[in-house]
Inverse folding.
């Protein structure tokens, strides 16, 4: 009740900033903006300066990722407000991402503009996304289906790899450490502003970890990733670009015991395997008139995922694909004190799914489904202080109900640019997955072809403030969302739940330049996430926090970092009494945990850099998924070498 009252108070107070702030006047006072304004690519149909964005946004730059010293994008996202990560076991284990208490398939993940979630489950296994070639991550929280359609119900995570750069040197990176871990990465590029290409090849292997809490079997994981980007500028008006990503992940797996014996419901050593091949291809083009008043874009993307493996039910596997085509056109109109922008967009998508080891005739055919979406976004800027947007989208689906989604946003600079009030309100939708519609055998799961898409209406309201000449930047955001038609398990199938599932919370963030050599960033999120019966949702910690310090020594060659991540207690599914309860799982609480990472680097010369880190430095004993062992303390060291052309 106290949280509800606090949220209501914030709703009543913050909108006054849009109308009554002392910064809202028609005087000659200028709006204070940073010397170089950060551009957000994903929050609108066109790139925007951060101060014009109404949605709740977080950005991890190349420098941020380097300071965090993470090997997986998932570990970087633990430092973003509102995001919860859960990994099954060691660093190669299946890794889920949730935003503001959502489910994992409510989050749209884009890599260089291409949706990378497999069509069967609708959620990305982030253990396949290495951080080696990632240059930037944008996280847009809140319903974004008004722009992006299905799967953007709770937010969007947009991952960008390094763009082609003139004179990009060839770089080799090698690392080794605990758990017989090794990593090699090679990257390079060539070209200039008009044309160029870049590639990255990474291989990571770990052989000294066991997913099961008991036993001595080591579960090896090996991931090989290749990515490439290219662009070509044809005159002043037309730009073409393309991106390619290929990932192979081979993992030895342990299993949840369903034998009904003494180990029922526990993770035990098993000779299981899981091999995944992800392929993503994207091409795009942009044409702009000489005065930039007309901008047209087209894009095409293809995602293919092949899964194969073996377990106690025998071999299993699936092939899925997604093909997307999209076009949009933007018209910009400028007046004396206004800027208006109208964008129309149209896209089409086809998804396919096939069970490659069917044990039931119903699983033999290749399933297909088609979706088409169209809509528009309108943006209005007043006096370079007030920024409003409205988006409306219609999706036509051939397998389930059509959907109309929308989004409204507002941003308002206050106190001569020192503050930015931001607001968003929208409706999101997530379509049933192929697994949920058609089931999967071998196994116990039966599909439900009568499922309806999940829908959510949510809002957020926040205030960003810059203190002491931008040395400190804080943001406080409250959020709320109601999910209807939530798809829930009812053994041995799934159904749409009756009633609403509620998500409420607050997000806090801080970035500070403590001294000329010491930077600090911190975040805290409180989330109250309940299902339609009023019960706490699974794997949604109520409290999450992070703290990061980066210290550059006076010689400018040495850097030390400290990172803390706290994950509060949360519930998870417990199958130990599954049969005794009449095929109903219990709910067991996992304890909170805090992870400390220490890191450092030393620039030997312009070409050679040494680096190292200690993960889980406090040797915390914790579980992110019930029954799976997580890695203890690990020590890693490596070298980066840049070669001149």
């Amino acid at each position: 009740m106290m949280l509800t009252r606090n949220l209501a108070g914030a709703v009543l107070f913050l909108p006054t900033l849009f109308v009554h702030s002392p910064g809202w006047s028609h005087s000659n006072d200028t709006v204070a903006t940073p010397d170089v304004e950060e551009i957000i690519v994903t929050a609108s149909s066109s790139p925007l300066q951060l101060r014009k964005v109404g949605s709740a946004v977080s950005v991890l730059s190349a420098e941020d990722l380097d300071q965090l010293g993470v090997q997986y994008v998932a570990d970087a996202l633990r430092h973003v407000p509102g995001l919860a990560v859960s990994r099954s076991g060691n660093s190669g284990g299946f890794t889920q991402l949730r935003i503001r208490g959502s489910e994992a398939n409510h989050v749209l993940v884009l890599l260089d503009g291409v949706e990378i979630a497999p069509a069967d489950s609708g959620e990305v296994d982030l253990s396949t996304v290495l951080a080696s070639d990632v240059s930037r991550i944008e996280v847009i929280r809140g319903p974004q289906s008004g722009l992006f359609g299905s799967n953007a119900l709770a937010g969007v995570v947009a991952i960008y790899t390094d763009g082609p750069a003139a004179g990009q040197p060839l770089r080799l990176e090698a690392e080794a450490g605990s758990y017989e871990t090794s990593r090699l990465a090679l990257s390079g590029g060539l070209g200039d502003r008009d044309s160029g290409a870049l590639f990255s090849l990474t291989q990571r292997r770990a052989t000294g970890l066991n997913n099961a809490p008991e036993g001595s079997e080591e579960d090896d994981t090996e991931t090989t990733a290749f990515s490439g980007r290219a662009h070509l500028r044809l005159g002043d008006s037309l730009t073409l670009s393309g991106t390619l990503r290929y990932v192979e992940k081979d993992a030895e797996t342990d299993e949840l015991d369903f034998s009904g014996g003494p180990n029922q419901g526990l993770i035990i050593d098993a000779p299981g395997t899981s091999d995944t091949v992800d392929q993503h291809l994207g091409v795009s083009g942009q044409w702009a008139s000489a005065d930039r008043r007309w901008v047209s874009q087209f894009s095409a993307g293809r995602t293919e995922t092949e899964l194969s493996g073996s377990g106690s039910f025998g071999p299993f596997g699936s092939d899925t694909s997604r093909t997307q085509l999209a076009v949009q056109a933007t018209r910009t109109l400028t007046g004396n004190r206004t800027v208006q922008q109208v964008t129309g967009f149209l896209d089409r998508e086809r998804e396919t799914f096939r069970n490659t080891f069917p044990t039931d005739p119903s699983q033999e055919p290749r399933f297909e489904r088609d979706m088409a979406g169209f809509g528009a976004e309108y943006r209005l800027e007043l006096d370079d202080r007030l920024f409003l947007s409205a988006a409306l989208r219609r999706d036509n689906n051939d397998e389930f109900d059509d959907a109309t989604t929308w989004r409204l946003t507002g941003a308002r600079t206050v106190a001569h640019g020192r503050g930015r009030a931001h607001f968003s309100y929208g409706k999101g939708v997530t379509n049933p997955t192929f697994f949920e519609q058609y089931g999967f055998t071998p196994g116990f799961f039966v599909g439900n072809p009568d499922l309806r898409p999940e829908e959510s209406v949510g809002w957020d309201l926040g205030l960003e403030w810059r203190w002491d000449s931008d040395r400190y930047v804080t943001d406080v955001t409250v959020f709320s969302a109601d999910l209807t038609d939530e798809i829930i398990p009812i053994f041995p199938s799934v159904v749409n739940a009756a009633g609403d599932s509620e998500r409420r919370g607050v997000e806090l963030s801080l970035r500070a330049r403590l001294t000329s050599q010491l930077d600090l960033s911190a975040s805290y999120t409180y989330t109250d996430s309940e299902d339609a019966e009023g019960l706490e949702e699974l794997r949604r910690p109520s409290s999450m926090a992070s703290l990061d310090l980066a210290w550059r020594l006076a010689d400018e060659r040495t850097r030390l970092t400290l990172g803390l991540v706290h994950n509060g207690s949360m519930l998870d599914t417990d199958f130990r009494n599954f049969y005794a309860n009449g095929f109903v799982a219990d709910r067991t609480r996992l304890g909170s945990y805090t992870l400390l990472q220490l890191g450092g680097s030393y620039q030997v010369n312009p070409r050679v850099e040494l680096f190292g880190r200690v993960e889980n430095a406090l040797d915390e004993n914790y579980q992110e998924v019930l029954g799976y062992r997580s890695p203890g303390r690990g020590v890693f060291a490596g070298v980066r070498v840049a070669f001149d052309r």
Residues 2-33+44-643 form a domain with the Maltoporin; Chain A fold (CATH 2.40.170.20). Residues 1-34 have pLDDT under 50 and may be disordered. The first strand starts at residue 39 and ends at 40. The chain has one domain: 2-33+44-643.
